[in-house]
Amino acid sequence: MNPIPKNTLCLWYDSEAEAAARFYAATFPDSSLDEIWHAPADYPGGKAGQVLTVRFTVLGIPCLGLNGGPAFPHTEAFSFQVATDTQEETDRYWNAIVGNGGKESECGWCKDRWGVNWQITPRALSEAMAAGGDEARRAFAAMMTMGKIDIAAIEAARHG
Questions:
Q1: What are the CA-CA distances from residue 86 to residues 11, 65, 121, 122, 155 (Å)?
Q2: 160 by DSSP, 3-state: which?
Q3: Nearest to 142 by CA among 117, 109, 108
Q4: The domain spanning residue 50 has which CATH number?
Q5: Are residues 114 and 47 in the same domain?
Q6: b (16+ CB within 10 A) / e for 30-53
Q7: Quick one: 155 and 80 in the same domain?
């Protein structure tokens, strides 16, 4: 048994925390499925022996997936933001999430099949925003027209 981290993000799933953790571990570097705990007794929304919680790591962040039933769905109020360095990396993560039953959104956001929100954010966009002034305004305007972020278009807009 691995030591339990001091601080862990808890993500509420209807019933597929294990499937989500396996997908994240297979998709992102520095990610893993660490432990699966089964319910010792019946609980609201579940039965003894079913997967209750799953400890996993996403991009180095310790998480706990709780199979708590449909009472609390995910919202855009929480998202993982993944900084990417290349268009290939941006495409790979975006396509993995959307292609596995997820949904595209706007401005680099997408949602996985379990409802967890992701921001696939190229560093080029973050750098353009940090530059401020006209560079940031042009990059921001370009981003507002995109689903998945196009790094070449952001760079072109940034540099006018």
A1: 29, 30, 10, 7, 12
A2: coil
A3: 108
A4: 3.10.180.10
A5: no
A6: ebbbbeeeebeeeeeebeeeebbb
A7: yes
Over residues 121-139, the pLDDT tens digits come to 999 999 999 999 999 999 9
**Does one domain contain both 118 and 140?**
yes
Same domain, 79 and 60: no
> Using one digit for the tens of pLDDT, what is the confidence trace for 87-134?
999 999 999 999 999 999 999 999 999 999 999 999 999 999 999 999
Q: Which residues pair with 74 in a beta bridge?
A: none
Domain of residue 133: give its range: 74-160
Whole-angstrom distance, CA of residue 127 vs CA of residue 124: 5
Predicted TM-score of the model (pTM): 0.94
* Strand extents, DSSP E, 14-87: 32-38, 51-58, 61-67, 79-84
Handedness of CA 150, 122, 32, 38 (dihedral sign): negative
Per-residue pLDDT for 34 more than 80?
yes
Count of structural domains within the chain: 2
